[in-house]
Every structure is written in C-alpha cells, then in structure tokens.
Amino acid sequence: MSPTRPLLALLASGRALPGDAICARLGIDRPALGDAVQVLRGLGVELNEDGAGGLGLPGPLELLDAERIRAALAPRSRAALRGLDVHLAIDSTNRDLLDRAPTLPAPWAVLAEVQTAGRGRRGRRWRTPIASGLALSVLVRLRRPPGGPQAFALVMSLAVAEALETLGLPDVGLKWPNDIVWGGAKLGGLLAEASWRGEECAAVAGIGLNVALPPDDGRHIDQPWTDLRTAFAGRGAAPGRDALAARVIDHVLDAVPRFEAGGFEPFRPAFEARSTVSGRRVRVLREGDVLDGRAVGVDADGALLVDTGGEVARCLAGDVSVRAVP
Q: Greater confidence, 317 or 121?
C-alpha cells in the first residue's frame, strides 16, 4: 500500500514530526518517505520541512473517513448504500462511477480529497483543493422517471440545499440550472450525468461544496463565491466534512424513489421557493444567440421558462448560461 495517504493522516493534526519517527510509524524507509512527500506536493499539499528532515503541515486538516461517514448515515441510508469509497486523489468522482456503472451495484458513493480533473457544467473545471471542500458523487439506478436529466439535476440540487438546512444553514438558494447559493454567492454546484441501458438509467449526481476554500484558490471561480466556514460564522461551528457527506447522502437517497415515482413535479414548489432567478430579469446565453426576458419558473422537465414579452421560451440545461440583467 502506498504510504502517501497514511503520511497525510499522520500529519493531519498539524503537529510536526521528526523524519525518523514518521518512517518508524509508517514502516517505511527514507526514500519511500521522500517519494510520498513529492506525491503530496504534486497534489497541492503544502509541507514544511526542517533541516533535520522533520515534516509538518501549516495547520490541521480534516480528512474524510469512510467509517465515520457510514456511522453518521441515517439507518435507512446505511442499509441501502452498497458501497462507499474515499480516495486521496482521483481524476473525477463522476467519471469513476460512470466508468464502473455497468457492473457496480447501486447506490454507491465516491468521495475524494482532491480531484485532478473535476468537471462542472459545460465542461468547466471544478477545483477541489486538498481537504477544503466536499467532492461527492452518488450512483443510483432509475427506471425511466417522468422528466429528463435536467429534472434529475434539479431534484439533486434541492436535496443538497435541504441537507444543508438541516445542518443549521438557513436560506440556501438554488440558481438554475446547477448552482447552490448562499448570501448571493456560489456555495457549490451539481453535475448530473446518466447512461441508459434499455429502460434502466445509471444516474450519477456529482456534488461539489466549498467547505473552507483557501482564498488563493477562490480566484479561479468566475463569480462571487462563499464557503461553509464563512456561512456558519456567527452560527457556531460548521459541520465536519464527514457529517456533511453523510447528511447529503441521506437526502439524495431519500429523494430518488420520490423522483422515480413522480418526476420533478412533486419537487417543483420547493425548488421554486429557493430559486434565485424566478421573477427576475435574466439573460440567457445560448449557442450563437442571446435571450433576454423574465424568468417565470421551471417546467415539469426542469427547463427554465423565460418570458421574452412575446412568448415563453424553454431553456434546457447544457446549452445555456444565466446571468442577471442590471
């Protein structure tokens, strides 16, 4: 087994340790320790090294733990979940599940401390600096539900918002088609992907939440952003990442059978109540054209409805971007 993750776990408290003590604890030699250090640095982990070979982190890290996440799940989710993987680094949690979907039992969850090729909507990169956010994907299987893939994405976004609210964060908004918003700024996002085999769909909900994002990493986000550390300021401590992951999985798994039975329609009032664009003037940027109007809601398939003054246009996910018009 690679010593890279055990090394990070050993240093996660933030207390520096002598190199010889690290090697003894991990049962490795100095060259193996050096290799593990280089891997961690390649993943963006800042390691402080003293002249005697001691190692430490700038501060403590809260690493994800599969057993703690399972223990925090509601009993119904613990019984239903067929598998849960926690990776130190992976290219994309969504891609991992989609690649394994033909043979993997469902539901199955995958989390990662770092995504090296995380994806957002329309191919945008989703950055996940080490231990600073939640990168979680959940695989479920669905018989063809009413509504399309966009409807599934909206239901999953709503599940995440409701999970955050149960953890003590009020007023979580949803910006169509996939942004999770708090205080007018982006807190996270969702990427839903699916593959069909006959009447059965393997659907993956990829969820990204900012937990304690380093300010330097925030400069890569092309809109105002926030994180749970900021949102919970003055409200007590933000939930731990294991508890956060468990609560989100609970709400995702609770929503799936209701969506399969009734599609988006039973969820539509709750989504509209959290919508940050409904009733506002918006500009929809589509491939090759621009649509200005007032957002008047979403339909049963999850399409955004925009009143342009002469007609109500349906805007589907994947080919639009929404911006508020001053």
A: 317
